[in-house]
Fold each of these.
Amino acid sequence: MSSVAVTAQTAGPAAARAAARRRARKSSGGTRRAGWIVYTLLGITLLISAFPLYFTLLLGSSDPVEISRNAVPQWLPDTSLFTQFATVISSTQINFWTALTNSLIIAVLVSASVVLFSTLAGYSFAKLRFRGRGPLLVFVIATMAVPTQLGVIPLYILMTDLHWIGKLQAVIVPALVTAFGVFWMTQYLSESLPYELIEAARVDGASMIRTFWSIALPAARPAAAMLGLFTFVQQWTNFFWPSIVLNSNNPTLPLVVKSLQSNYFVDYSLVMGGVFLVTLPLLIIFIFVGKQLVAGIMQGAVKG
Amino acid sequence: MAVLTPQRSAPDAGAAGREPRRLGFSQRLGRWDVKLSPYLYISPFFILFAVTGLFPLAYTAYVSVHDWSLLGGQGDFVGLTNFSDVLAQPTFWKSLGNTLSIFVLSSVPQVLVAITIAALLDQNLRAATFWRMGVLVPYVVAPVAVSMIFGRLFADQYGLINSILTLIGMDPIAWHGDRLASHLAIATMVNYRWTGYNALIFLAAMQAVPRELYEAAVIDGAGRIRQFFSVTVPQIRATIIFVVITSTIGGLQIFDEVRMFDVYGLGGPDQNWMTTVVYLYDLAWGDQHSLGRASAVAWLLFLLIILIGLINFLVTRRISTSDAAPKTTRKSSTRGNA
């Protein structure tokens, strides 16, 4: 079907228009370039953002005895950092590779699920007419403000009954959908998916699900990517619930930080080396997707 | 929307199929497709959300009126005993005080600094994306890692911050001893992670402010600082409230930072920095093993969050209705400059 091409053609100009609008707005903000004071202050802000991470590298490179005597044992990281990395990775109490794999599995599966189900529901709310649509959408929006994390105790009882304690599904299943995701996709699709496209596909004889798959899904791609990214970061850094249902034998990366603290609290250089190692994967991902994260927040992503 | 009624696909099907009976069947199928699909598409969300979100929340109320042990399971119905037990515990009230104190210490400076950073980013910058990404770096550091790193910076002995204080001739602070100092340290961790994030939300709101307002201010002779306070701040007021609300929901549930602030992770020997969620955790998975009492705490905290949320909502409504241009500002808080 030619519907994908049609979407690309219509999504193209729409995206271009939005970009042009943004450009125009930015340049109309003032032709005067920012002065050095602005750059200095921003530079300081960036230093404050980066310093704790740099400090972690420093402590990871130092001798534990030095750390307990001197606030800044040295000013430059050195190769002894890699010794700490090696110790953390090979430690039998830490299970680093298991944690990395687990974090990856959880973050990928949950992001994929949140994106798929949110897009499906968002498409339905944004573009289809059905009885009860209004009240149901209000319900979704209302539940965004409800702190469902407070339902941990029955959820824990449920996981115990299912014999899921210590298993990844205990973390994955409760995170499969979010009200925010549905709201986010509804908003995006109701603004950016023209009815004409759906109509055209229907006239061509496409079934409802076919229309969703070949019209709505491609059109939803930018918003879906952002939702996926935020869900990924949120799952990757999540600690509260995984610390309840998982243990140090089958941990995620944040749980590794806790194990490091309780197993090696006397060896601060090892702990800090481990903390950096745990932070590193997301930092690397950030280099590639940071721009999209910034755009996502500026389009109104809410803290999750 | 006419497209979503089956009649529209009928001519197409009619052209394709020659036999009237088959046409009737596919038409009926098409009608069901149109009628059921919307419900089918929203059902995964509602079913999963009901099972993993709403049901546990409601069932918390059921657990909270029972004697319920982590190991022994469900016990007798005890009415509101769990609630009265918890409310009689000084630790509960102390944890609530800690939570509110950390919340205030983290949200107020955070909003002020975030607005300042946003104002800097709103200038006509070279490499704007670089600066924006730069302030977002802390967001990708897990709270537990932030807590470990800052735990070292705020170490009572030989911590960097105390060393600097000593260097400039001040007394070192007992970050793990003094109650308010520990709150400040934990609030700093929260601020580190979220300030840049909120700055970007404010930046989006600032970019949605009509530029004519600034031009008018310039004509009236307002300098940059005056423009900021007389044009920018009033225009992004709704976004400020929006950020305050979201940080309220998060700020009242602080857990990770406290768990890592010392090795025991239960808020210190005198519960000086134990938050209410950590208290809940300790009741259920600590020595007491009391899921019943923990559920009572969960419900009390839930009611508190809803109450504060409602107050926020009412304040927001009042302020937005008195706002000269509420619509543009409100829009920017939910959708930014998209």
Amino acid sequence: MTLKQNILESATQLFATNGFRNTSISAIAKSAGAAEGTIFHHFKNKEDVFLCALNRAKGLIIDAVDEQVNSRHFANGLQMVEGVINVYFCLSEQLSWELLLLFRSHSYELASVNDACRTTVETIYNCFLNAMSEGISMGKEDGSIADVSTSKTAVIIFGMLNGLLRFDIDNIFPVHTLYFDILQSCRKILTNGSDEVQI
Amino acid sequence: MPSITLFHGNFVHSKDICRKTADILGYQIVYDADLIQAASERFAIAENKLSRAVYEKPSAFDKFTHEKARCVAYLKSVIASDLAEENKIYYGFLGLLIPASVSHVLNVCLVADRVSRITVATAAGMTEKEASKAILKHDESCIFWAEHVHHKDPWDASLYDIILPTDKKDVTECAEIISSSVKNDILMPTKKSRQAVEDFVLAARVELALAQAGHGVTVSADQGAVTVVIEKNVIMLARLEDELKQIAAGVEGVTEVFTKVGPNFYRNDVYRRYDFETPAKVLLVDDEREFVETLSERMLMRDMGSHVVYDGEQALTFVQEEEPEVMVLDLRMPGVDGFEVLRRIKKEHSRVEVIILTGHGSEADRSRCMEMGAFAYLEKPVNIDKLAETLKAAKAKYAQD
């Protein structure tokens, strides 16, 4: 691993644990075993380190989704959606630091003022949502999923997963015990979508 | 002939002025209530829902039901198609919905100061208290409405062609000014301004379609090509743009759809923006406990957190351990005084910016401190805005170094 990658990995863990404000460049340097000067050689400032760490997380997450969803064959659309749900839960273990970094409020504060950050966060969420949407349209064609709105349902299901995962991360409730119930609930949403809500 | 919009405060003789102007010009008056009734009939929606959308603050649940956005879109559709007729006076709030591109409309605002409005109200039989309340309520409605439609103050000069002070001119004078102004060449309908009315009709139709799908966005049109402006920051921008384009493209008369990000997109949240600029780590050093604690509280109200110590010794220890970004320092303190603290800080922690805030300063002290490397020299009592500004500048310098 290059020194730069090493710095980013340390930074990911520190930002994820302590947040942006409470992580100093010197703490990152110490944890990566690098001199402070080296960090400024590779990055403009602390914000740049944060952005690069987020970008690294993006790469890892996209690769994982590609490998575990996009390059796999699913018997039907419903199974593909379940594949995405499965990956999201697996990643919360495999890439826990990276997801934690993504969930940090600083990612969104920065995204509301900085286009590069917004695009990075958007790409991460899109990689899950696009895979989910693809599964739903596939399922609508092969009959495994009812006639629901593809993009809206993808957002609703993903929002639910995302909320549950944050429940787990913040120790609100151990959602991993709910894995099969979640799959069942999603199946209900996807196969039984005919009743319209009136406003 | 050009149409007129008449926006007004209450108790400013607005009705008399409106009638008189209509008499002089032979114009038809269109009240908000007429447009509300028309919208209610055309879109089968209760009139009270429409008036609530115009005159009242949106309910907390509006974010989910989008009722206000839908109602405003209905009203825009109605006023847009009505505009084609010309020779009308739009009296009330709804004239503000007409875009500036429709240049054959004279926009008038009637104002008066509070005292004269109360005089008018009491002359009509109200008590002073009732009048005050009514004025407050009306002004509040004006503010909500102008904020919703233009993100501006209702009395912002940029919204009108003429602002008439009715406490300084009588009804006849005002009506004469309006009716002679309307004859100005610049207001005459042109091919372009009549096209703008058609564009407004199309934009209103698209806004309505988007509002019905839950999107409160502003739309402009240019002969079939519509532009949807996204004002609120959203992370998944591409997805939202796709959705908006899909809905807008389905509206009759739309040939092309563009989306763009509005000026507020990257700084939607004022508080958050403030948070970015204000120093995160401020140390206040002063032996007058009451003063420094009050200062710290007042700064907290402005989202500036600060740590407080009461003498020079404590200040130096704190800086060793916690390196603050900016320090606000009193000069006269028992033990290690401000001059000594400043000297040591600039020697050992030169990045920390020091703002001197002292009660018994002199010109000599000022130049001595500035020479020693202080960022600024302020005297008590200090205006909190001035201090906040200085802190921000100090923080900017700290970030630069």
